[in-house]
Amino acid sequence: MQLVDTHVHINFPDFGSDLDEIAQRWRAAGVVGLVHSCVEPGEFASIQAIAHRFAEVYFAVGLHPLDVAEHWSDSSAEKILRLAQSDAKVVAIGETGLDFYKAANQSAQVAAFEAQWLIAHQLNRPVIIHCREAAEVTAQVIRQFQEQHGAVQGVMHCWGGTPEETQWFLDLGFYISFSGVVTFKNAKQVQASAQMVPSDRLLIETDCPFLAPVPKRGQKRNEPAYVQFVAEQVARLREVSLETLATQTTTNACRLFRLPLPQGEER
User: Fold this and answer.
1) What mean pLDDT comes out for the span 128-141?
2) What is 164-198 written as a DSSP string?
C-alpha cells in the first residue's frame, strides 16, 4: 500500500527534535509522498531544507489568509512568484484562500487570494486552498477568475464543507482533500462529502501537526504516518478496500501535483 499525504507542516517547532524518526514512521506506514504547505513566504527556506533532506517531500509557497494582515504587501506577489520559480520541488501555490471565521479583513484576503491565483495561472501550478466559513465567496472568486483567465487546478484542503458546497468546487474542477476530521464521530457532513466525491478527485492529508485522527485523537501532535487512519476511514465510508482507496488517492495526488508515480502505480 502506498499513500500520499497532500498537506503537512513538518517545519513547525513540534517536529524539531525527531524528524528522522517521524520519517521512519511515515515510510513504515506506506507514505511515499508528502506535499508540504506554506503558511507565509518567510517559511520557504525551512521548508526547502526539509524537501531536500527527504526525497519524497515536495512543497508549495504562498500566504495563508489568516496571515494576510501581517505579511501581505505590495511586494508579496513578486516574492511568491520568484520563490516558486527557484526550486523544481515547488509543486503548488499555497496555502491561500479565505478564512472569514475570525478575520474581518475580507477584502484584503480576497485581493491576496486573487494575486496568488494569477501566479498559479502564470506558472501552470495547482492551488492549495484553505476555506473556512467562506465557501460561497471562494467559489465566486474562482468562478470569476476562470471566466477571465481560464482554468487553474487545485485542491480544497482539509475540507469541512457541506455536500452542496462540495459540489460547487467539484463543478469548478477541484480536488477535495479530507483530513483527520473525517474520522471524528460528529463530523457527519464531512463524512457525507467523502462519500460523494468522485474517485478521480479524492485526496487525503493529515494537516499535521493539527487534527490528529481517531485513534490518535487527543495527542498533541499529528504526524504524516497517521494519514493511514484517514485512508482507512474514507475507505470504510466509500465501501471500498483500503488498497483501492490508497491507489486512487495516490494516483490523484501524483496527477494534480505532477509527482513521480510510485513504482507499480498507473495513471
Assistant:
1) 97
2) HHHHHHHHTT-EEEE-GGGGSTT-HHHHHHHHHS-
Cβ proximity of 7 and 158 under 8 Å: yes
Residue 137, pLDDT > 60, answer yes
Cell of 46: 525551512
User: If you ran DSSP here, which 8-state letter would residue 208 be given?
Assistant: B
> For 36-63, what is the mean pLDDT?
97
* pLDDT score, position 96: 98
DSSP secondary-structure letter at 258? T
- pLDDT digit string, tens, across residues 169-181: 999 999 999 999 9
Burial category of 36 from C-beta neighbours within 10 Å (exposed 0-12, middle 13-18, buried 19 and up): buried
Distance CA 173, CA 154 (A): 8
Q: Tell me the β-bridge partners of 4.
A: 33
What cell does 69 get? 494582515
Report the run of H or E that residue 99 belongs to, with start and end: strand 90-99
Angle between the N-to-C axes of helices 227-238 and 188-196, in degrees from 0 to 180, rounded to the nearest 10: 70
According to DSSP, residue 12 is labeled S
Instruction: Tell which residue, 71, 2, 79, 24, has the closest CA to residue 244.
Output: 2
Question: In which residue are the cell numbers 508515480 written?
Answer: 261
CA distance 193 to 70: 33
Helix, strand or coil, per DSSP, at residue 77: helix
Find the angle CA(202)-CA(205)-CA(211) to the nearest 5 degrees: 130
Q: Which residues lie below 8 Å from residue 220, measured CB to CB, with a gap of 6+? A: 14, 209
Please answer whether residues 224 and 206 qualify as being in contact, where contact means their C-beta atoms are separated by less than 8 angstroms. yes
How many Å apart are CA 191 and CA 234, to the nearest integer?
Answer: 8
